[in-house]
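Extended Data, panel c. Modelled sequence:
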Amino acid sequence: MRRLLPWALLALVGAGAGLGAALGQANAPGTTASSVLVGAAAQSWLSGVLAATKAAGTAHLDYTGLGTSPNPLLRGSSSGSGVVDFASGTFRTSETDHEMEWSSQNGGPVHAQAQTTSESDIAIGSTLYQSFGPGGLPGGWMKTPGRRDEGALGLASADGLGVVLSALTGSVTTVSVRELGTDSVDGAPATRYLVRTEPRPICPEPGRKLPQGSTTVWVDSDGRLVQARDSFTISATFGASLRKKIPDLADVPSGPRTLTSTLRLSAFGASVHVAAPTLQRSGGSTVFSAGSGTAVARCG
């Protein structure tokens, strides 16, 4: 049986890794309706927010993802939680995804089936450990090959949680930061901002570009990031080069599909302990096998 990548993962390959911003440091926008920072000033402001967040030392994490579409086969949801120690560069996260999966038997017709998968990640130094639940890889912890991606506040390898932050820490130039007014997160006061980034090529189709990206961020009174949300819509067709690489996509329903991801950070400074797991072994050797839906390609 050939198992195809979940539709949501294909969307993230094309878009999730492409909504980013290069960062620097400056004062926050003022309180007037016309309060906007552009160019280098916007990049600098975002850098200051991320620096203040890391300076808190630790944080608790909560993540939700929602895929909506007129086509029920393209709907799905995700949720996750975890902790991160910014100072030591460690984190522990877990996530559960509810998506449709398409598969074909011996080159036959493609069939859709509702699938629930789970993934847990532990990162210590440059090493990432993963464990997959029902519908994914066999249970047990495994050490991934190669070095982990330590970008996005150290959370770039944390599955969906890291995808939200990649919208603020990638290589794309920030166009502007606009203040949207006061709000609250978990009952605490915060200020909401809209961050816009310039278009970049869609991976793996460099001839096409995403529209201008935007991410809404909530910043607390200490200048720390307490919530980030991005939302984007995938168009109604797969690109020609992607369909050529994966011919089975001809039988997979295409968009439109809107993906909305929200990451919340809380309990700054709370005690966090992240320990290496006991690895799954076979014949005395650590086991790792690649599986559907566990890796996101990046480009640009």
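Residues 2-286 form a domain with the outer membrane lipoprotein receptor (LolB), chain A fold (CATH 2.50.20.20). This feature is highlighted in the accompanying rendering.
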